[in-house]
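writing this on my phone so excuse typos. first protein, seq and then structure
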Amino acid sequence: MTTLLNSLRNPTEIPSSKAPYLLQLSSFILDPIAYLEAGFARSDVFWVYAPMRAIIAASPEAVRQVFAEPEETFGVVENFADSVRFIFGGDGSIAMASGEEYLRQRQMLLPAFRGERMKTCRELVCQVTRSLLDGKRKIVTEEVAREITVATILSFTFGSFEGERYQTIAREFMFQLGLIETPLKAIQLFNPFLQVFSGTYRKWLRSREIFFEEVAAEIRERRQAGVGDQGDILSILMQESETNQEIYCQVMTLLFAGREPTSYTLTWILYWVSTIPEVKDKLLAEIDSGEDFRSLPYLDAVIKEALRIYPPPYIFGPRKTKFPFKLLDWELEPNTVIYPSPYLIHHREEIYPEPEKFRPERFLERHFTPYEYIPFGGGHRSCIGMALALFELKLAIGTILSEYNVELADKRPVRAIRRGAVLGPEKFELLVEPR
């Protein structure tokens, strides 16, 4: 199929849809996967006009070319940056930085995701997981996954998730996330005209004000007490003399990045394990072997397959060319926006036979290149929290399946749906009992 598409490709023009802009925008909002797949049917590199005029890169070679470029090749996409500023409360987020400033911020934050700081999460994840399942007969899977991931990222960011202040921060963060994930409410938030009449917008501003007040109080108390490095993200940001505004934005960025993808992936894994008996049996046999959860190859393959079939970010944050840039056969002008698409890469049949089928064994049978498997991005902008996310998933799944029997309360298929800027599963329930 790919060979045929390449042979039909016009070397002078990147394919694009002829549909009106508003129709494309509504299609993207209502069903982003169907919208992307329609473009992919024309070519593995194609123009879209939603969420903005941009090129989707959906071939390994195109993605390799983008990832291989130095950070200085690409600049900030203003529409994207405006959305980031709105969500995170201003300038200062690593998600919005570019060039040397991005590399500086990345180097500053990376030590938090290594060594002893990671080990502190081990007991936390297992403890929180047990507390959410003990004594329960039925759970809403998404809610349990959310509580696990929020507790973990709060602890990683602030050193704790317990206490009134951290619970307030968590509550306001989850409230804001809930507004963004709901398409109708998100439209009211991001449309300047609708903001004037929107109670949703006023609630958003109040919630963000409370969030920042609590973070500011934490910073103030630590500085007054002369508290040094407590082994958390906030300590690093304070030691690096970041302004309070920059700290607010970085904290919000890390909470968003650490909650959504991990939570939805954990939910998907529990769905697949409860749906496919042979996967569950293999996984239980491995988990019951007594080996450390972190070193189990089939568990690792299950996590990778869940991230393959429904990567939470179906397209990555945009890259805007600063200079003329060659992408496959095409010469792109400066200021061209490119979105690599993990979802489309992960569903290329020549790389992943039967791509719609959940089959972890594919990750035990062969190695995939960094351009064929990209759930955490790649190049200079690979996800800074990848190691934490995988560590957390292994601990949570290992704890659940080693100590509890879980099965679907309703056997209906669960679909992938838009959850704000990412993909997530529909809500479903699990029946739970101790093993």
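second protein below, same order as before
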Amino acid sequence: MEINDVITAISIKLYETFGESYEIYTESIEQGFQEPAFFIALLSSDKNQVIGNRYHETLPFDIHYFGRGNMDAYSTLDKLMNEMEYIKLLNGDLLRGTKMKGEVVDGVLHFFVHYNFHVYKMTDPIPVMGELQIPSDTKE
């Protein structure tokens, strides 16, 4: 699983929840963008080894919402809190959102959510050692 897979799943969920009249941006927003709009920003990425080749990865996101005032932002926050708890990746796996919170700063809603998952890192198999023949000089 890649970070882009999670961003795609977030975009699809936003589209399913809010419809096509909302723009969804995953790259930097240009001047003159269309409102209402969402901007998906990955804040950081954290990967920790659990055991062996198994890792726990945390991806915290800040989903910006550019809307039509504070009341619109508050109702959008309610929807995001309910709908973004589970997102579905393209392979069908579900990710659960944690640490969800929101705040409005300068008329922009910031919805924070973490998506956590385990990853198994594939490694090349260790080559099997061939047979070892030990000559013996013992007499029978």
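The chain has a mean pLDDT of 88. thats all i got for now
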